[in-house]
Amino acid sequence: MSDYMTKTLAELSTDILADGIIDADEVQGIKARIYDDGIIDREEADFLFQLNDGVSGKDNDSSWQELFVEALTDHVLKDDVSPDILDDDEAKYLTEKIESDGLVDSVELALLVNITAKAKECTPSFNTFVLNTLKAAVIADGIVDADEVEMMKKVVYGVGGGEGEGVDRAEADMLFDINDATTSKEGHDSSWKAFFVEAISKHLLEDETSPGEVDEAEGDWLIARIEGDEEYDENEKALLENIKANAKGIAGKLKFKIDMFGV
Description:
Layout: H1 2-6, H2 9-16, H3 24-34, H4 42-55, H5 62-77, H6 88-99, H7 106-118, H8 124-139, H9 146-157, H10 169-182, H11 190-205, E1 213-214, H12 216-227, H13 234-246, E2 249-250, H14 252-260
Helix pairs in contact: 2-4, 3-5, 4-5, 5-7, 7-8, 7-9, 8-9, 8-10, 9-11, 10-11, 11-13, 12-14
């Protein structure tokens, strides 16, 4: 343990990366070192990113991801300048570090999701980056699994994303993009359909402009999204059924479409 406390971070990085993986003992040593003074400074954050880039995709101990996410979340959300808020400097730092190697791995994605879920506020550019990154990760294999649904829930319902716990248009568009890209595949976790219906319904029925109702502008957007791929899939039909059952009013063309399809 003394080596972890006395060596420079550069020396530690060389030692830890020598075999290409990070094991549980190394995680404990890293954690003791970077939390020795109770804070994670920028040099230590750089150290963590350097380590992760060096072992990305390898058979690391699961505790490595846990430490990486915890420590870097603390770095940006437990600082003295903007506690609990991801400010412009912090958002730029994270985005640049994550994009620097041209790959967003599962550890970095977990970090993005965690920050969005825990921050009281994030910059619009960071929220966009998270949504685009998450969308790309989910559609990569065409299958939406339970873990991916949980990540989407944290991002969409997280306080720091978009309109906070509400579902904004960018988040709703992300969900439709994922649905359109994965419609033809089988094997999705059942929670995906339930979440898709719930989140889009919240976007339409829990807004400030027309709460409880789908106004004409919302209806036009929904029609365009559903018919964009020229197909009414099962998730979209379930969404329409839920809206019909729960909306106090449905305006414009959407009501006609729902009546026409006999939903």
